[in-house]
Write a structure and sequence with these properties.
By secondary structure, the protein is of the alpha+beta class. It has two domains: 73 residues, MutS, DNA mismatch repair protein, domain I, CATH 3.40.1170.20; 90 residues, Trna Endonuclease, Chain: A, domain 1, CATH 3.40.1350.10. It is 32% helix and 30% strand. It has five helices and ten strands, in the order ββαββαβααβββαββ. The protein has a five-stranded mixed β-sheet, covered by helices on one side. Strands 6-7-8-9-10 form a five-stranded mixed β-sheet. Helix 2 packs antiparallel against helix 3 and helix 2 crosses helix 4. The longest helix is centred in the middle third of the chain and has 13 residues.
């Protein structure tokens, strides 16, 4: 087994070491974004890679940040982190590339298997929600409109208390 890549946590950023192994996260599977020979990861991406034992996150003093402490910090920055992570992890485990979709007004965009961002457009946008959460009809219509106007399919990722995710796809139809 290969040594995990080291990354450094500074405030709200996670930046990998300058190594070929770290750049492979981006080159092979499009984790993060390249930044001066390093890869800047989101908290979601870093958590996923930590769980897969491919990444070790260090604090400013060089001390390892354990998963529990990392999760606590992530939840502090994003109260909906666990629900978003459940969807992120499920999609990655299914072999898809998932990236943020803030510019589309959604949580994530998902690329079809074998497609990398930049090669083609994302196929879906997804909104993670907890099974006990709710959407108003106005919010639901707004999400559907965003998907339609960006020519993507809308997925609602419903996360239960065990972290299992069910997906509901919504499409415009002409009767």
């Amino acid at each position: 087994m290969q040594e995990p890549v080291r990354a450094y946590l500074a405030d709200e950023r996670i930046l990998t070491e300058d190594s070929d192994e770290a750049r492979e996260f981006y080159n092979k599977s499009r984790y993060g974004k390249l930044s001066e020979n390093r890869v800047q990861l989101s908290f979601l991406e870093a958590m996923y890679l930590m769980e897969k034992e491919k990444l070790v996150v260090l604090d400013r003093r060089g001390k390892e940040v354990k998963k529990d402490a990392f999760l606590k910090k992530a939840r502090k920055l994003s109260p909906n982190f666990w629900v978003r992570y459940a969807v992120f992890k499920d999609i990655r485990d299914r072999g898809y590339i998932i990236k943020t979709a803030l510019k589309f007004g959604a949580d994530f965009r998902i690329y079809d298997r074998g497609v990398k961002p930049g090669e083609d457009h994302a196929k879906w946008i997804v909104y993670p929600v907890h099974e006990s959460g709710h959407l108003t009809w106005y919010e639901f219509a707004a999400k559907n409109r965003v998907a339609h106007s960006t020519k993507k399919r809308l997925l609602i990722g419903v996360v239960d208390d065990e972290g299992d995710v069910s997906y509901w796809e919504v499409r415009w139809m002409r009767p």
